[in-house]
Design goal:
Oligomer: single chain
Number of helices: 11
Strand content: under 5%
Structural class: mainly alpha
Shape: globular
Distance between the termini: 51 Å
Order of helices and strands: HHHHHHHHHHH
Number of strands: 0
Length: 233
């Protein structure tokens, strides 16, 4: 049973728009307000991430209005965005692991687990979205997963920046992850109400939970710590 076109496409552009707004709000203090001061690597990564979210919005709009030819052409142009985005993400994680400030010493190895897992799942979703490009429900949902992966770091930063009285990074991290888990659950419920639960959103939920559990459990892993020291070097 395939989902209808309305269920698959008509509202996705708004969800992608919300993801972009959350990303801008969360990263505004550290990136958007001072893009020339963040360093070349962070500037490249942040610009590519923003471009990706804008591309999702444009693509969803084209699909909604049935402009499928430009949708396909623009979709293949994403090959110029995703590989450098992933590479710059890995380099940023390695840079953080080599850092010496108190935050990096306390959290770099734990966040490396979260970031590496997120980047790997982003890559998988992108490849699967291209593979299923002729199966619209699957294609859209794998693309949607890449947008949801932006929510944990963006919401954590937004809560820390704009919510009075919150100073604990652990608190905002878990709150951001919880919000993302709720989003994944809502998407799964919508699929089930439409008549079929497809694989992308359950996989997304599993990755989000693995990120959150690993953030806590990885702190005591000597093997992971040794691997991170190797990557830092």
């Amino acid at each position: 049973m395939q989902l209808s076109r309305t269920q698959s496409h008509d509202t996705s552009v708004y969800y992608f728009g919300v993801a972009l707004l959350v990303a801008v709000a969360g990263f505004y203090p550290s990136f958007f307000s001072q893009p020339t001061r963040v360093g070349t690597l962070r500037l490249v990564h942040g610009t590519l991430a923003t471009t990706w979210l804008l591309l999702l919005i444009v693509q969803a709009t084209l699909a909604r209005t049935r402009h499928l030819a430009p949708h396909r052409i623009l979709g293949w142009s994403s090959l110029a965005i995703v590989p450098p985005f992933l590479v710059s993400g890995v380099l940023l994680v390695c840079d953080a692991l080599a850092g010496t400030n108190p935050f990096q010493r306390a959290y770099a190895t734990r966040l490396a687990w979260v970031d590496f897992l997120g980047l790997a799942f982003f890559a998988c979703c992108y490849v699967l979205a291209l593979w299923h490009r002729r199966r619209r429900p699957l294609h859209l949902r794998y693309m949607a997963c890449t947008a949801v992966l932006v929510l944990p770091p963006a919401t954590a930063r937004a809560l820390g920046a704009y919510l009075p009285g919150v100073s604990s990074f652990d608190t905002v991290f878990h709150a951001g992850m919880l919000i993302s888990v709720v989003v994944a659950l809502v998407l799964m419920v919508r699929d089930m109400r439409a008549g079929r639960l497809l694989p992308p959103y359950p996989l997304l939920l599993a990755v989000l939970l693995a990120q959150q559990v690993g953030f806590v459990a990885i702190a005591g892993s000597t093997t992971w710590a040794a691997l991170c020291r190797h990557l830092a070097g």
